[in-house]
Amino acid sequence: MINRDPRTGNIKLKVQTLDDLWHLYNVIEGGDLVFALTTRREETRADAIRAERGEKKRMWLGIRVEKTEFHEFSDWLRIHGVIEEGRQDIGSYHTLNISLDDELSIQKIWLPHQLDILVDAEKTTARGLITLLSIDDDEAVVAQLREYGVKQTATIRSPRSGKLYKTKDDREQGYFDEVITALKTEMGDGPLIVLGPGFAKERVVAYGRDKAADIFKDCHLEASGQSGMAGVTEVLKKGVGSKVLEDSRVAMETQLVEGLLAEISKEGLYAYGETETRQAVEAGAVETLLVTSNRIRTKTYEEILAAAQNQGSKVVIISEVHEAGKTLEALGGVGALLRYKMG
Predict the structure, then answer these.
(1) How far apart are CA 37 and CA 13, in angstroms?
(2) How crowded is residue 49: how many other Cβ atoms within 10 Å of its Cβ?
(3) Rounded to whole angstroms, what are the CA distances from 129 to 93, 179, 196, 318, 337?
(4) Residue 144 · residue 186 · CB < 8 Å
């Protein structure tokens, strides 16, 4: 967040990580006025007479948002709307393509949970991403834990045979060297978790601490019953024993949704679905309100969120991209952990 003007509701931001695009997708909604540097064809009167199109120019435009598009494995957020402020084409449709290092301004009436998302995003950026290395004797997968889910970034296969390597030890060292090269390319500033079902994880860590101590010095080892992305998912679902995972947003969201499911299974302190959750909010019974990012875009759910915050309830936005979010979406997109049981 570069600056904020409470008088106008204008907040200027800079996109520093791919996660920031996900956060923006969750706070920008229809009716917002969004400004950004963009390209548009500059048409002159002569161009119109000759039916020719002018050259594309960089310009700062403000559009009144109608819809947004975000693709989890891309590096851009598209914001569609009508040009309301700028040097040309007022009233015409335009799309802002927001990516890394871009700056933009959002003018709107900010809800408390939307400001919380921006504050949390700043904290997450400061902490950096978590990198996971899932490895066995045959294959290694590098993945990054992001706010919107887990992204696989590299796959390395072990050279089980070949004339390049005279011995089994030579082959393994060549394999581990490729893994280290991939980590040097893919790792962010955050910590590294090494996981897997066998002993390859211990061997690669021992080798890495000798060859690339800066990467492996403070890495975390986690046992898993599976390798590959299945192992990554397994470790993330544990929710115990690792401060690294406890600090991650996805793990926190997964733990909360699993807590809700546990309360439902034992007929405990829970509510889910729009009607039941609204009743619990109005009764002041909600300790923690969970709502998917898909649902917060509707007026009905905004009202539930606002009422919960007025009651002092904790509100957590759950991404519907990962499994926990999909589970909550199947329950109606909203649920709550309660302070006391409803009658």
Answers:
(1) 13
(2) 8
(3) 36, 18, 20, 18, 29
(4) yes
Half-sphere exposure of 322 (CA within 13 A, CB side): 24
Write the burial class of residue 61 (CB in 10 Å: 0-12 exposed, 13-18 middle, 19+ buried). Answer: buried
pLDDT tens-place string over residues 196-233: 999 999 999 999 999 999 999 889 999 999 999 999 98
Structural domains of the chain sorted by starting position, each given as residue range(s) with its CATH number in brackets: 3-110 (2.30.30.870), 128-246 (3.30.420.60), 256-338 (3.30.1330.30)
Structure tokens at 305: 């969120």
**pLDDT the model gives residue 19:** 72
Which of 288, 289, 285 shows the shortest CA–CA distance to 340? 285
Residue found under tokens 């800066």: 214
The string of DSSP codes covering 139-180 is EEEEEEEETTEEEEEEEEE---S-TT-SSHHHHHHHHHHHHH
Contact indicator for 220, 193 with CB cutoff of 8 Å: yes
Tell me which DSSP letter residue 91 carries: T
Coil, helix or strand at residue 74:
coil
Amino acid at 61: L
Task: Supply the pLDDT for residue 144.
Answer: 85
Rounded Cα distance, 149 and 249, in Å: 9
Sheet-wide strand order for 314-318: 270-272, 334-338, 286-292, 314-318
Structure tokens at 211: 């060859």
pLDDT over 50 (residue 15): yes
Rounded distance between C-alpha atoms, residue 208 and residue 202, angstroms? 10
- Residue identified by tokens 């309660």 is 338
What's the pTM?
0.57
List, for residues 307-324, the tens digit of each pLDDT value: 887 788 888 888 877 788
Structure tokens at 204: 């690669």
CA neighbor of 59 nearest in space, from 101, 30, 89 = 89
Q: Is 285 exposed, middle or buried (0-12, 13-18, 19+ CB in 10 A)?
A: buried
The token pair that represents 138 in the structure block: 């045959």
Q: H or E element: which one contains 305?
A: helix 299-310
Which residue did the predictor score with more confidence, 241 or 85? 85
